[in-house]
Amino acid sequence: MGIFGSMDISASGLTAQRLRLDVISNNIANINTTRTGQLTEGGNQIPYQRQVVVFKARGTESSFAETLNQALQGRSVSTTALLQGQTTLGTTGNGVEVQAIAEDTLPFRLEYNPDSPDAAQTTEDGIPAGYVRMPNVNIVTEMVDMISASRAYEANVTALNASKAMMTKALEIGKG
């Protein structure tokens, strides 16, 4: 890993968590959206479907398990060898990337509102008359996810600042 590797890893985490926050915000904004333009087989409107972000590790040359196995077998190396790039142990963990934005498979909520234009007039698609299909978005789940994403974002900012401080100190040592 080069001198900017830790900053690159933190930056990938910042980007991923920002996208996660955007998707959560979109879910909250659409919590009452009963029409998306998509139709069921019966011709009824499909409500908004909650979205979730799926992360994956960004292309690593060796996995954590491989690194751990090497260390347990006594093949660990010195810090000097790591710094000189003489081993692949330093390549574990190259950040995170978004694999997909997937739709949540939880069923839609049913809400009794016979005055709504989206209410079922007769029992159709398994929905009793007078009920409206509502998005599968739960505000409590979204708020918990938002707090989690905010904390992860803050942790990446802290790691980025620590890397920056270490590089600054290294430059000061080089001057003296």
DSSP helix fraction: 40-55%
Total count of domains: 1
First-residue to last-residue Cα separation: 26 Å
Order of helices and strands: HEHHEEEH
Q: What's the tally of helices?
A: 4
Give your account of this protein's structure.
- There is one protein chain.
- The protein has 176 residues and is α+β, with helices and mostly antiparallel strands.
- It has one domain.
- Helices cover 43% and strands 13% of the residues.
- The protein contains four helices and four strands, in the order αβααβββα.
- The strands form two sheets. Strands 1-2 form a two-stranded antiparallel sheet.
- The longest helix is centred in the C-terminal third of the chain and has 37 residues.
- The two termini are 26 Å apart.
